What we know:
Layout: E1 8-13, E2 24-29, E3 37-47, H1 49-55, E4 72-80, E5 92-96, E6 105-109, E7 113-115, H2 122-125, H3 129-142, E8 150-154, H4 159-170, E9 174-179, H5 182-191, E10 195-198, H6 204-211, E11 217-222, H7 228-235, E12 236-244, H8 257-262, E13 266-269, H9 277-290, H10 292-296, E14 304-309, H11 313-322, E15 328-332
Parallel strand pairs: 8-9, 8-11, 9-10, 11-12, 12-13, 14-15
Antiparallel strand pairs: 1-2, 3-4, 3-6, 3-15, 4-5, 5-7
Helix pairs in contact: 3-4, 6-7
Amino acid sequence: MTAHLPREMTAIGYEAPGGPEVLRPETVPVPEPGEGELLVRVAYAGVNRPDVIQRQGNYPPPPGASPIPGLEISGVIAAVGPGVPEDYVGEKVCALVSGGGYAEYCLAHIGHCLPVPDGMPLAEAAAIPETLFTVWHNVFERGWAREGETLLVHGGTSGIGTMATMLGKAFGLTVIVTCGDEAKCAAARDLGADLAINYREQDFVEEVKAFTGGKGVELVLDMVSGDYVPRNLKCLAEGGRHVTIAVLGGPKAELNMAVVMSRRLTLTGSTLRPRSDAFKTLLAGEIEKNAWPLFEEGKLRPVTDRTFPLAEAAAAHARMEAGAHIGKIVLEVES
């Protein structure tokens, strides 16, 4: 370990899966960067639904990843591994990581980092990578979204939902979202959603049909799965695409494949965390070229909900599970 760096750090861990209360601060060794890696002194870490699912015991880290929760961070490069120029030390970055974000120091692959400009607060920078990488890949790469098309997003005020709305509008899409109450619908409309549907009081299938004049949408970004899938397919236009990125409503769906065939629908989905370093590096390059300038210039900013101290990670998880948040929840690691 570099002489000026500590050998130990505070991180958030848990002995066994369970509710938010199992999360607790613990002292662990500071990791050492390997080939192509950076050691980031973490300022902030984003909280995401996969962190909750991991804590519950249902989303184990991929082989070689840190068991510490946390998939996105912002901070300052404290040390570099072989193959990374020494002059990167001291630079501000945000990064998509495979784990380890809820800690004072975290390893990041050089290819999975984005530079944080001077005008961007590190608290905001930490709220971007996981949702930006996920939405860019699934809406624009897997979903083939094109200017002039209409996108339906469930969970419109979640981190993914707010990012999908912002990016969709920035790239010429009409965006429809579903939300759980009128306050969240209003927040979604303020963010730019063309239509916000209160799914507790309205049938989103009928609302989508009415809004699109019976045509339907070209793309659905689905985080629910389960019994939402057949309803989503009713929302799709002919030749539409359905992209699943989470299964919060259950992993199984009953489908009429004759409908898929006759209407030439495409069903796909992905999980980002276990993808290869090479894939994520290519994805980061596409994002840095096409989307990151919008954030660097301040044209887009992440929607943030609340910031909790690192030691209160349990409270942050409890807030996420309660479903009251609008936008991203963030942990402050370095005060």
